[in-house]
């Protein structure tokens, strides 16, 4: 039962279905469940798709802000990679590690710079990113 709820939570998160995410969490879906071979969590999925409201809800419900995938990527890495400034700000407001390093030694700042997300890069730099 729990596995089904968790799978549905991933789907609802990826497809930006906030009411369904709320319902699944109320039914006991695990906010920190890891899915697939790279260890994505619902927060990674929300961030990867730029779903700030769902990310905010997941964080309020106890999602781990610095959780890593198998490749060492945190939600902040993913938000910076895509240039989602609102999501970057949300994660930083929940104590995301600004200088987290993935398996390729990339930080969120390096990913933002590599993808020419100058506003996100400047924000990360101001907060001590390197």
From TrEMBL:
Source organism superkingdom: Bacteria
Keywords: ANK repeat, Repeat
Coiled-coil ranges per UniProt: none
Ranges: ANK repeats: 38-70, 71-103
Record has tRNA processing as a keyword: no
Pfam families in the record: Ank_2
InterPro entries noted in UniProt: Ankyrin_rpt (IPR002110), Ankyrin_rpt-contain_sf (IPR036770)
The keyword Mitochondrion belongs to this UniProt entry's keyword annotation: no
Database matches in PROSITE patterns: ANK_REP_REGION, ANK_REPEAT
SMART domains in UniProt: ANK
PANTHER family: ANKYRIN REPEAT AND PROTEIN KINASE DOMAIN-CONTAINING PROTEIN, ANKYRIN REPEAT-CONTAINING PROTEIN-RELATED
Protein name: Ankyrin
């Amino acid at each position: 039962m729990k596995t089904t709820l968790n799978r549905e939570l991933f789907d609802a998160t990826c497809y930006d279905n906030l009411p369904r995410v709320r319902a699944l969490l109320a039914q006991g879906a695990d906010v920190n469940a890891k899915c697939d071979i790279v260890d994505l969590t619902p927060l990674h999925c929300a961030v990867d798709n730029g779903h700030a409201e769902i990310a905010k809800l997941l964080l309020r419900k106890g999602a781990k802000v610095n959780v890593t995938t198998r490749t060492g990527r945190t939600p902040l890495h993913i938000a910076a990679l895509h240039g989602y400034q609102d999501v970057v700000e949300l994660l930083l407001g929940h104590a995301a590690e600004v200088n987290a390093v993935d398996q390729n030694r990339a930080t969120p700042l390096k990913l933002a710079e590599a993808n020419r997300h100058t506003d996100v890069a400047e924000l990360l730099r101001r907060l001590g990113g390197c």
